[in-house]
Design a protein that fits this description.
Blueprint: H1 2-11, E1 15-17, E2 21-22, E3 82-83, E4 93-96, E5 114-116, E6 129-134, E7 140-143, H2 144-147, E8 153-160, H3 178-182, E9 185-194, H4 195-202, E10 210-215, E11 222-226, H5 227-232, E12 235-240, E13 243-244, E14 254-256, E15 269-275, H6 282-287, E16 290-291, E17 297-298, E18 307-312, E19 323-332, E20 338-344, E21 352-353, E22 355-356, E23 366-374, E24 379-387, H7 396-403, E25 425-428, E26 434-437
Amino acid sequence: MAHGSETNQLTEPEFVAGNGLLHRRALLGRGIVFAGAVSTGLGAVTAAAAEPLSDAPWSLNVGTPIPAYQTPSRFEAHVVRTRDNPDNVPRNSRARTPHQMLKGIITPNGLHFTICHGGVPDIDPAQHRLVIHGLVRRPLVYTVEALDRYPMVSRIGFVECGGNSAPLFSNQPIQADVQALHGLTSCSEWTGVLLSTLLEETGIDPKAKWMIAEGADSPHLSRSVPVAKGLDDAMIAMYQNGERIQPGQGYPMRLWLPGYEGNMNVKYLRRIKLTEEPAMSYYESRTYSQILPNGKAYRFYFLQEVKSFISSPSPGLKLKEPGYYEITGVAYSGTGRIAKVMVSADGGKSWGEAALQAPILPKAFTRFRMPWRWNGGPAILQSRAWDEGGNAQPTRAQFVALRGETTKPPAVTDFPSQHFNAITSWAVDAKGDLRHVYA
């Protein structure tokens, strides 16, 4: 009898919310038989045959030589960024991360989102200089070689464009995949010199309250940053995921401001000027200062607030048959660690708590996972995150009430809106197709 009870305990699923959400302990391999949930098609788990495995062609021939720099398998050629400037016209251009094809928290360097306002400059690191001047006691000029000799730190953290998810400001749900809607955010390990080290070396005039950071690309993009942030956790980042920052990420150095909107993380950094007042540059006074429903400008609000989205299942990733699936995605907050992610499969009527995959780091992606048994009927998948400060991701209705929405025709384009962080909803139909909805 005890043996039979134990068997039932191992195979009977434990539902925690409506429409098939299972308890997160099922991810530990208890409470559900996974093999039975994927029993047909190319992704099937089948009984092992008694005879030995047959040899495929790649098991019978010697492979290719090891390359000097490894690139992904040719079978992963579809895992790429989408670009909004495929004709390479000289203008502002973007490349979006394919979150629906990634599973961890670190974005590979070649898939990290990129926005360039004047193309990617070809900078000779031997000629590049960083100057720190203005309200300092000792203005200094740093070479790349000199900074390589300074004490460095490594920290994992996200970068997110202030305009990421801007299509969700549309008054109608835009039919696009997670890459098009949320692809302007990524997470890496950044290595470099803490800006506080250099500021202490130059000496800060007590009157200095702001820093004007400027890039060496053709637009000389500049942003005003509080000195307090520079003395907190700002970094002159020179390495990304262990290797030199790639040209699209600011080679040979960029400013990294953990938790702050992406455009403030000035790439190709060449100058930091300490001042009493912000510069009111083109980008901070126009491009990244949206108008709120009350007519006031949303200006100098730097933090990327708590947010999450489901990357799988998501539009474009068809569910082949009823059975077990894992709902997964990322959550992050510009103020600290993620404390909790709740998932719903019935459009917010009931919720279950997702498992958070370690490591759970401040101002970095946290991967969440939720086991789900799809019964083949309609479902609406949602995630909602909380950070350690108690800040909750808003519903879309709550967000729109404060920040407004656009009445433009629905299309994946540039909306004049920033910092969208409300709940995203994916609807599943009886055929297993997913689409973006407002729920």
